[in-house]
Amino acid sequence: MRSSSIRLGVALLIVAFVLLDQIAVAQNTSPKKTPDQKALGPDVNKLAEARRKAIDFLKTSQGDDGSWTSNESAGVTALVVTALIRNGVRLDDRAVAKGLKALQGFVRKDGGIYAVGSGQKNYETCVCVMALKAADSKGQYDAILARADKLLRGLQWDEKEGIDKSDNRCGGADYGPSKRRPDLSNTQFLLDALKSLGAKDNDPAIQKALIFVSRCQNLESEHNTSASAAKVNDGGFIYTVTGGGQSAAGKTRGGGLRSYGAMTYAGLKSMIYAGLTESDPRVKAAFGWIRSHYTVTENPGMGEQGLFYYYDTFSKTLDVLKVEEFEDAQKERHDWLKDLANQLFAVQQPNGSWVNPKVRWFESDPNLATAYALQALKFCELPAASAH
C-alpha cells in the first residue's frame, strides 16, 4: 500500500510540474501588457458622435439640386459625397443619391467630369472619380470612370506635349485646361484618382508622376538637380518646381523655397504610391522631415492656412504607411489616430461642421472643411481604413 501511495504521489507531482511548465510557456509567448500601456485610437463613442454630427450637418447644407456650396463647380460636391460614402452613408440615402446625380450632370463628352468654363478640368475630374468609384458598388459607373481615366492620362504633362524627362514639368498635372504649369497638389489628386481606378505602382503614368514629385522635394539628388533643392535640402516638399518654383510657405533668406506640411505629406504619399520603400533616400528624407514637424494643431510652415487639407492628407499618408504609433525626431511616440481625432473633436462646431477662420483655399466654407475633416476621421479608426 505504501509503495502504491508513493507512486501515486510521484505521478501527481509530475503532472503538477508539467502544468506549471505549460503555464510558464504560455506566459512567455503571450503579449505582455504593462500598467501604463494604453489602447491606441480615439474614444470610439466620441468618434462615432463626431462623425454622426458631421453627416447630419452635410445633409442639411445640401442644395436642392444635390450640390454643395456651388453648382458651378463639381469639387466640393465630389469631396462631400466621397466623405459621406466612406463614413458609411448608404448609396440610396437621399443626400448621397442626389449628390451622385448632380455629379453625373458634370460628365463631359471628352470623358472629363467638370463644370464648363471652370478652368479646373483635372482637379474636378480627379475628385469626381474618387466619389463615383466609392459609389461604384455594382459597376454602374464603370464606363464613366474608364473614360475619365483616359482623359486624366491625357492631361498629364509628358511626351504628348513634346516634353521629355529633362523638363521640370514632366509627369506633373495642373488644374487644366490652362496647361500653365503642373503642381504637386494636382499631381497628388491625379495619383489618388489613378490608384483608386486600379493603377499599379509600375503604371507609366504613376512613374512619370514620380519624376515630377521628386523634383518638388527639397532634396538635392540625381532625381532633383534644380537650384531650389540645394538651397534648402531638408527633405520636405514645395508646391511646384516649375516656372522658377513656388512654395506657399515663402522663401528663405537665401532664396530657397520653404517646405511645408501639406505638400510634404502629399509628396511622401505619392512616392509610396509609385513603389518607393523606406530604403529610398527620398522616402527617408521626407520621413525625416515629418518626424521633425509632427503636429495636429497646424499645417507646419503655414499655421492655420490649409489646415483641413493638411488633416486630410496627413491622415491618408500615415494610413498608406500603415503607421499606428508615430515616433517623432525626439523619439517620442504619438498615437496620431487619437491626437488627430481629439483635435478635430475640440474644434468641431456645435452644428457638426468644421470651418477654418483663415479664408485661404476656401476653407472658410464649412462644406469643404467638413468634407476634409470627415474623411480624416474615417482614417482615425482602428484598424486604419484601407480605402484611399
Can you tell me about this structure?
The chain is mostly helical and 388 residues long. It has a single domain (38-378), classed as Glycosyltransferase (Alpha/alpha barrel), CATH 1.50.10.20. It is 49% helix and 2% strand. The chain is built from 14 helices and 2 strands, in the order ααααααααααααββαα. Strands 1-2 form a two-stranded antiparallel ribbon. The chain starts with a helix and ends in a 10-residue tail after the last helix. 46% of the residues are buried.
Q: Which whole number gives the mean pLDDT?
A: 90
Poorly predicted runs: 1-37, 384-388
Strands side by side in the biggest sheet: 1-2
**Overall number of strands:** 2
Derived structural class: mainly alpha
How many angstroms does the end-to-end distance come to?
A: 76 Å
| CA-atom Rg in angstroms | 25 Å
CATH class, please? Mainly Alpha
What is the helix fraction of residues, given as a range? 40-55%
Short description:
With 388 residues, the chain is mainly α. The protein has helices at residues 2-29, 44-60, 75-86, 94-104, 121-134, 142-155, 184-196, 204-215, 227-232, 261-273, 281-292, 307-320, 336-347, 366-378, and strands at residues 325-327, 333-335. It has a two-stranded antiparallel ribbon with strand order 1-2.
Layout of secondary structure:
Elements: H1 2-29, H2 44-60, H3 75-86, H4 94-104, H5 121-134, H6 142-155, H7 184-196, H8 204-215, H9 227-232, H10 261-273, H11 281-292, H12 307-320, E1 325-327, E2 333-335, H13 336-347, H14 366-378
Antiparallel strand pairs: 1-2
Helix pairs in contact: 2-14, 3-4, 3-5, 3-14, 5-6, 5-7, 7-8, 7-10, 8-10, 10-11, 10-12, 12-14
